[in-house]
Hints:
This protein has helices spanning 8-19, 21-24, 65-78, 93-102, 132-151, 160-171, 182-198, 210-215. By secondary structure, it is an all-alpha fold. The longest helix is centred in the middle third of the chain and has 20 residues, at 132-151. It is globular, with a radius of gyration of 19 Å.
Amino acid sequence: MSDETIPRRKFLVGAGLAGTAVATGLTQTMPAAAEAPAAAPAALAGAPAAPQAEPQSEPLLLLNETEHAFVVAAVDTMIPADELSPSGSDCGCATYIDRQLASAWGGGAKMYRSGPYFKGKPEQGYQLSLTPAQFITTGIAAANAWSRKTYGRDFDRLDPDKRIEALTAMQEGKAAFENFNSRAFFARLLALTMEGFFGDPIYGGNRNKASWRMLGFPGLPATYANVIDEYRDKRYVAEPQSIADFS
């Protein structure tokens, strides 16, 4: 793994610590302007080209192009292409996130959102009126606004080392988002990225079962009684199988 990429395991280890911020660190008001991503400044002719978004095999379901570009840049920084696996976007993590945000879960179908909205303790869970989809899109807008203020351009147009620096600032809660908690946003984004990378490919991520092959995880099969004798005291290696393989 090159020096310009962030070791994926450092982000994965930090996930548990960052998660508690979702309940405790958010302000109670979200300005309406933050819910739509601001346009990038016109005077960026000298800015590096934005990273190419993953090839679209289907239209985006919820994210717009600006939001999708942010997600692709973020997942590729968290999961860079290396000897272990393809990049996060090549593994379908951005597709997974878009699908989840467009789902009933993303729309808050089973969330109580009638208030009151007080600053809660970690064990009290999520305490905002925003749906998961609104939370992510509002966070992306806040992240890009902070990135423009700090670096002069949107997050996806930053150089790789600056994207690492920016995500680290969010992870540590040092990125000063306006009326939004950067640490909580990072925690949710990281959780969705991990789900997309390690989950069943039927949901859009873990393309070609890349993470399962990396781990040696066999996937859906849950019983191995028929091969116990054959592989006794031996390593069991098999082609991973997903839900779709049994459909």
